[in-house]
Amino acid sequence: MVKIDWPKYGKYVRIRIKSPKSFIWGSFRTHDIGRLGHSKRIAGRLKRTRKWATQTYLIPKKEYGRTKQAKRLMSQIRARH
Questions:
Q1: What does the pLDDT look like over 27-56, one tens digit per residue?
Q2: Closest CA relative to residue 40, chosen from 27, 50, 25, 30
């Protein structure tokens, strides 16, 4: 499941990889990926296996689909899921 949300407000486009219901509540952590303060990854512990997994990628709206980094990330996400 790859779902892209473009919210009306806020700085980021959300690329959802897995449903938040698959994760243990309160286990989510945000990690910077790429340059500091730009793209982010939200990870959490899965309910069934207790292993860490990516739930969402956050990419700045102004960079989404325009920069090489955003395009590369989207191609990697599509290849994995």
A1: 999 999 877 667 899 999 999 999 999 999
A2: 30
pTM of the model: 0.76
For residue 51, give Cα distances in angstroms to 15, 18, 28, 41, 66.
20, 14, 12, 16, 33
Q: Return the amino acid letter for 7.
A: P
Domain ranges across the chain? 3-80
Residues 6+ apart with CB under 8 A from 32: 38, 39, 40
Burial of 1 (0-12, 13-18, 19+ CB in 10 A): exposed
C-beta neighbour count of 73 within 10 angstroms: 20
